[in-house]
Amino acid sequence: MNHSASNSVFPSCFMAADINLIMTALRFSAERHKDQRRKDVEASPYINHPIQVAEILWRIGEVHDITTLIAALLHDTLEDTETTADELEAHFGLEIRTVVEEVSDDKSLCAAERKRLQIEHAASISLQAKWVKLADKICNVYDITHNAPPRNWSQERKHAYLDWSDCVVAGLRGSNAKLEAYYAQIVNTGRERLKLSS
């Protein structure tokens, strides 16, 4: 599939098989994340997060590419569940497996190294992976600063996350103007909210 690095999108006329695959991915992700919770005070169900990432892609980024939307629903399954890459490929194909692998950290590495590698690799991942990564960062920054901040995170830790997120997003620039503009809006208002609450 030939992807432009512009703000281009894909046709939204899905076939029945595409919708079926989205539903399968949603159920698969829900099952794999069923015992997981987000770090906010209410311990929200984890599945809310991949759904939000897919929604941001569709609604804000106007990304209507089936591979990207399914990868968004599955983007944390390799990193945060017992799901294997071979399992993803068996269910959803090589292209989706590859995008999910591109946005997944190697959990055998320490947190600092994982963060460094996200910055280092951001510019070289595929366009589809860049879209998922951008939407993921939008959701995380919004949760930390607006919606559902992690329990026991200090102001300093929140600011540090935003600074690191900016470094990752710098490598994703040029992939989707609407997502990039929305990220800038969320992170800027987030910094103002943190400043007012400190």
UniProtKB/TrEMBL annotation:
All copies of domain HD, residue ranges: 46-141
Protein name in the entry: GTP pyrophosphokinase rsh
Alphabetical list of SMART domains matching this protein: HDc (SM00471)
Assigned keywords, A-Z: Kinase, Transferase
Enzyme Commission numbers on file: 2.7.6.5
Pfam families the UniProt entry points to: HD_4
Gene Ontology MF: a single term: guanosine-3',5'-bis(diphosphate) 3'-diphosphatase activity
Database matches in InterPro entries: HD/PDEase_dom (IPR003607), HD_domain (IPR006674), MESH1 (IPR052194)
SUPFAM superfamilies (alphabetical): HD-domain/PDEase-like
UniProt key word Transferase: yes
Keyword Iron-sulfur: no
Gene of this entry: rsh
Domain of life: Bacteria
